[in-house]
Amino acid sequence: MMIFFFQILACISCFEVVSSNHAHVETWEVLNYSTIEVVGQTNINNFTCRIPSYEREKDVLYCEKRSDGKVTVKSTLTIPVTNFDCYHRIMTRDLQKTLKAETFPNLFIYIKHFSELPSLHQRFKTISSTTDIQLAGVNRTFKIDFVTSPAQNGYLEIKGETNMHFTDFNLIPPSKLGGTIKVKNELKVKVRLLLKKV
Questions:
Q1: 188 neighbors 166 (Cβ within 8 angstroms)
Q2: Each residue of 108-128: pLDDT tens digit?
Q3: pTM, rounded to two decimals
């Protein structure tokens, strides 16, 4: 009788281990309509540098929701620095030079965690994330809140923004005319991803 009791306990323990390891997995493809903007200021005016489309194909967000509710994300978004367009030739050239485009041609975005899975059924839903940004060979971690909303053709749009500084990545803000025009250290980065569930 006692042996039978311990066998039941062992079965229950095994069931708990299997249940705790259960995960729900979703994969979202990043579409080329996705965009990235960098908004900054000089001592004279504001400027915006934009990447109008995401050129890489078949990059995905691999989202895994564990039984404890945590969502881990595996993703690598690769953005060529030379694709930034500031709508002013000299400003574009200076930004790319400041970001060391020749030595580090790509900016990388790694989304690591979501507070919950993205959903096609909720409009203007906010999900928080832990996101790494690697620029000029330096990696920094940011907390970015994404607002999700269903888009046309069954796609999902997620939009988020964060503040960062040139000096976060050991970069010196550019200046012109002997320092008469200076770019301020702080930048706002806006990320808009258009996703397709696969």
A1: no
A2: 999 999 999 999 988 999 999
A3: 0.84
